[in-house]
């Protein structure tokens, strides 16, 4: 094969991979924004209306009148979490970050504050009340909260120091953690769809539950590190082809899952908020 043919083939591979990546990013952004709106509509509005007992309809044991501080903590966690899911997508758009620097900075400040509140609110809930899944879930979720806390602080610290490469790296890690709550629901949705909930128990003490206590955020960080480091192995034609196929498959599943969740859960809550 001539050098020209090789170059043409590599260009097509790169173009297909870029297209797959854009479709995946668009799908993730749309899905996380819908989920963020659902969080605000279902959990935060219930807190404002004094109807926090409604939380237990989706996640048993969240609201307990005996532990008001835990209720406040998880309420802050949900409210701020909804904000970071929406703003995180906006902050990563190159055209906004480059052309509208002032907007990027102000949204970034809100994003950082919301991330800190999300982490602190969740940690407060765990330390006061504990999770439904017990010690293992406590450990997994505390690790998640501390990771988000550190990532938010480092993202802000490097931005203030004008260390843009480090700021970008920590912002990517923060976003990878921010979508963890969304992926947690997605993963459970897929698991129930394909296995009918094998390894899950109502009190979240099953083997799959223990696995999910860490799986919903640790792989995200690994993917973030690959993206940040741009490792050479990911630049080979074989790796690019495999990545393209994997991305298209992932995008298809996410589209189906987003449609299902929006139709049955997220959509009704969002519409209910809009229609009053």
Please give a structural write-up.
With 276 residues, this protein is mostly helical. It has one domain. The chain is built from ten helices and no strands. The model has no long low-confidence stretch (mean pLDDT 83).
Q: How are the elements arranged and paired?
A:
Elements: H1 3-48, H2 68-91, H3 94-99, H4 101-128, H5 135-160, H6 164-178, H7 180-195, H8 207-215, H9 218-229, H10 237-275
Number of strands: 0
How many helices?
10
Terminal CA distance reads: 65 Å
Report strand %. under 5%
Mean pLDDT value:
83
How helical, in percent, are the residues?
over 70%
Name the overall outline: globular
Low-confidence stretches: none
State the domain count. 1
Largest sheet: none
Category by helix and strand content: mainly alpha
**Sequence of secondary-structure elements:** HHHHHHHHHH
Report the C-alpha radius of gyration, rounded.
Answer: 20 Å
Describe what is shown at a glance.
This protein has one domain.
What distinguishing features does this structure have?
single chain; 10 helices
